[in-house]
Specification:
By secondary structure, the protein is an alpha+beta fold. It contains eleven helices and ten strands. The longest helix has 35 residues, at 231-265.
Length: 388
Amino acid sequence: MSHRIDAAEALPDSLLEAIRSRAAGYDERNGFPHEDLDALAAVGYLAAFVPREVGGLGAGLDDVVRFQRRLAAAAPATALAVNMHLVWTGVARLLADRGDDSLAFVLEEAGAGEVFAFGVSEAGNDAVLFDSLTDAVPQPDGGYRFTGTKVFTSLAPRWTRLGTFGKDTSGEEPLLVWGFIRRDQPGWRHLEDWDTLGMRATQSCTTVLEGVHAPADRIVRRLPVGPSPDLLVFGVFAVFETLLAAVYTGLAERALQLAVEAAHRRRSHRSGGRPYAQDPDIRWQLAEAAMALDAVLPQLERVAADLDAGVDRGAGWFRALSGLKHRAASTAKDVVDTALRVGGGGAYFRGGELERLYRDVLAGLYHPSDPESAHATVAKDLLGPLEP
């Protein structure tokens, strides 16, 4: 798997500047970035994980981490929306690299232009991947019908394939059933309910499944309820956490860049018009932010490289992955806070890029693994499980 794809080749500067120029408008209108998605599809970005021999970029996770950092620096909400498609294709690639072709159709269809989204999260389901509130009812054809409500369904206006899961309670033991539905199938709808503080352009609307059918050849797993060693569950968690960390790291890198520009641009009347870049307090704040961000980058790169290489960390993977996402999101929030202080009162006004980044970065609090889950995972690795 290649790790040498130039990020500027995959995402040219001209493309990113056009995407950046539209970001404020999508945020203001609370609209989906259709132009961005079309432009990314046109350069083959949605086929980043698809092997070269079938028309993709042949990228590894290490490559896509760099790509997503670069895209998030231009438009975090666009990057987060596209992230969900990249997660499914990244999971398919991770499985294929380990000899599991159960998601081969994901790579094939992504290469043909299909757009994948996640219909997994459910309000009140803190078991996340280990249980579901959605009903999965087996059908005579071997497929399933899914009924339930999924939240935070990014790419809601544009997905053509939705990966989802639910619980089959028809047998002696309940099973978690994973499958994919098509947009042109009846039995689902999404609500126009995405009116949020930040990451508005993702349009992660609630999706209501009303008996939508996934055929037998798109049912990819039937697993026991609870934690599972299955490769699909690991792949979803691993790629999801890593690419989320990439998005928030890219957002933080842009915030730091804007803060540095502000420090050179702003002048201090008290010091005779010298730029704030010469103020020791400002310099200390920016250095602190840069050092915090510098600490995330090696962890992010190592995790991505180890996943590409198939490194076996055993149960330690869950500590590494949940810790990575938590650190990246928390660090990004701290860096944006610093950038706002350095940017001065002007950064507080609506319409500025830093003001938008401040709202966007807050979404990192809500993605799995949240701070409580991340700390519980690391504590379990260090101290063992809680006693009953």
